[in-house]
Amino acid sequence: MLHTILQLTLLLVSLSMLGLIYRLIKGPTTPDRVVALDAIGINLIAIIALVSMLLDTFAFLEVILLLGILAFIGTVAFSKFLEKGEIIERDRDH
Amino acid sequence: MKKPKTNDVILQTVTNVVTFIIVLFSLSLFFAGHYTPGGGFIGGLMTSAAIVLMLLAYDLDTVANILPIDYKILTAVGLLIAVATGAGALLFDVPFLTHAYDYFYLPLLGKTSLHTAVLFDTGVYLVVIGVTMTIIQTIGVSE
């Protein structure tokens, strides 16, 4: 029973990822694509959690936190590039 | 070109909290590497991710004030630790890179298995941090 529900949920998350990939390709502006990438990362976390439940293992739990951190840092770096034109400043006062 | 003055107070406040969580997670990955997924490589990458987050929220000079580390020297120290761990085996008349472990009774921790592979992993950890941060600091600044 749980197996079927997990597989159904995986299908639904994959569908939502397909919608996000459509936004990633089609998105008229760059911020649209950045938000789509961030949401794809979060969906990937959900998929990893579901797969680790399907495989009945604890081995992937580090990957979940890792992807959360990486998605956050990547999105912050993209936003800073879009806003200021450079990612790492030498001196932020000027 | 004079850019308008921006205020990153939300990003900087979040960074102040999240950096500690990332560093703790990287240390947990590093020390758990023997029995669970993790180890020196991914631990070092996560530590440098925390430093990169600080670089994003602040700037190079501020982070150099917070962490006055020359990352090229850090790489050299890591390599030295790794080679010294391997060469230390030669002192006991066993082949290069032979590791040893034993169980010790430590205060607070109880029965703990201490393994010389952790020292080798420390070398890997330092090299990964040093190389990653050298690359990012070299190509990250647009001049």
Automatic annotation (TrEMBL), chain A:
Pfam families: MrpF_PhaF. It is a multi-pass membrane protein. InterPro entries: MrpF/PhaF-like. It is found in: Cell membrane. Keywords: Antiport, Cell membrane, Ion transport, Membrane, Transmembrane, Transmembrane helix, Transport. Signal peptide: none annotated. The keyword Cell membrane applies. The chain crosses the membrane at residues 6-25, 34-54, 60-82. Belongs to the CPA3 antiporters (TC 2.A.63) subunit F family. This is Na(+)/H(+) antiporter subunit F1. It comes from Rossellomorea oryzaecorticis. The lineage of its organism: Bacteria, Bacillati, Bacillota, Bacilli, Bacillales.
From TrEMBL, chain B:
This is Na(+)/H(+) antiporter subunit B. It is found in: Cell membrane. InterPro entries: CPA3_antiporter_subunitB, MnhB. It is a multi-pass membrane protein. The keyword Cell membrane applies. Residues 10-134 form the Na+/H+ antiporter MnhB subunit-related protein domain. The keyword Membrane applies. Its main location: membrane. It comes from Rossellomorea oryzaecorticis. Coiled coil: none annotated. The chain crosses the membrane at residues 9-32, 38-59, 71-92, 112-136. Belongs to the CPA3 antiporters (TC 2.A.63) subunit B family. Keywords: Cell membrane, Membrane, Transmembrane, Transmembrane helix.
